[in-house]
Design goal:
Strand content: 35-45%
Order of helices and strands: EEHEEEEEEEEEEEEEE
Strand order of the largest sheet: 1-2-3-4
Largest sheet: 4 strands, antiparallel
Number of domains: 2
Number of helices: 1
CATH topology of the largest domain: Neuraminidase
CATH class of the largest domain: Mainly Beta
Amino acid sequence: MGTEQAILGTLPGDQVWPAINVNAAGGYLIWQGNANEGTPAAAIKKAATPAPGWGIGAARLTSGFAVTAATPARVTQRLSGDQEKPRVAALKSGNALVAWQGPGKLGADIYAAVIGPGGNLVKSDVVVNTYTKDLQINPDVAALADGNGVVVWQSFQEEGGGNAFFGVYAQRFTPAGAKLGREFHVNQTTNYNQRTPAIAGLANGTFVVVWVSELQRFQNSVDLFGRIFDANGLALGNEFLINTTSNYCANPAVTSSGD
């Protein structure tokens, strides 16, 4: 409680798209920035890049939201293009799983990093998505009760069959940043866009993914749907409608109460 404050003090450049996740052991504040978080000046000169791109910065927080002395830190190590829309989940090990979108060979891809409790990078710039054609955007990330993490995102035209729409996909990770199994399809309905996913780990070890579904119920409908998975990424049932009205729905967010 109290007045608003600058958690990180004064930083150069712009800081946008903040996200925060803290548990009893602490956690991280992350953001998208265009100064220290972007392309280093030496690399810009070497690569003849005209200006710094957006990068991802992180600050380690205590459970009381105080910044530790070892941070802020630069998460992205890639030297070209904009790294955008970061999300973070504090894992049981004390590590944090970070995901964001950045340039790929054939469109935007989803990337991940793991930061240690001391602010050290355990792993960075891991390409999350297996399907690398077209666009993979709008990631979200969650910590699971078993200590692992999950990244979700929307992927364009991956569902195949001439379907020129977005679908929702996910990939599990270990606390050290290694992939667990293959990416998997979240939504069942593939007509029109399934997009803007959000994810939360639940206390019983499962996790829930929610997203925006277009035109699934009737012409011009924009609804929220969800689906629950076990810790291994296996669906525990069909997707289900969340909203009870026919008003347009957008930008879902979901969290666990811990009960």
